[in-house]
Design brief:
Blueprint: H1 4-26, E1 35-36, H2 38-43, E2 50-51, H3 57-71, H4 84-98
Antiparallel strand pairs: 1-2
Helix pairs in contact: 3-4
């Protein structure tokens, strides 16, 4: 029998993976293999791991560009309240308009 606490941890991991997938999609990044790692679900560890999986070079470069630009602070005007996701989306849109992303 699986405990309620264990099911909550698995559910939290699945929700975390789904939120990550959705946020990445908002900035134009799709990691096709992103999932909850089934081995860590089966092993009974404290929390199952989120497996980011594999991606092609274009996706890796797109993710690198988004992270780099977010780290540089690109996005809405200084002083404006914006979530990290909003900042990333704004920068990816800008790069897409400039034709700098594949």
């Amino acid at each position: 029998m699986v405990s309620a606490a264990r099911m909550d941890r698995v559910r939290a991991s699945e929700e975390g993976a789904a939120r990550l997938r959705a946020e990445l999609a908002e900035v134009g990044v799709v990691l096709p293999s992103l999932r909850v790692d089934p081995l860590t679900v089966a092993s009974g560890g404290s929390y199952p791991l989120v497996d980011l999986g594999r991606c092609n070079l274009d996706t890796a470069l797109r993710l690198t560009a988004v992270l780099y630009e977010a780290r540089r602070g690109a996005g809405p005007a200084a002083g404006a309240e914006a979530s990290p996701g909003d900042v990333l989306r704004a920068r990816v849109r800008e790069l897409n308009r400039e034709g700098r992303l594949p």
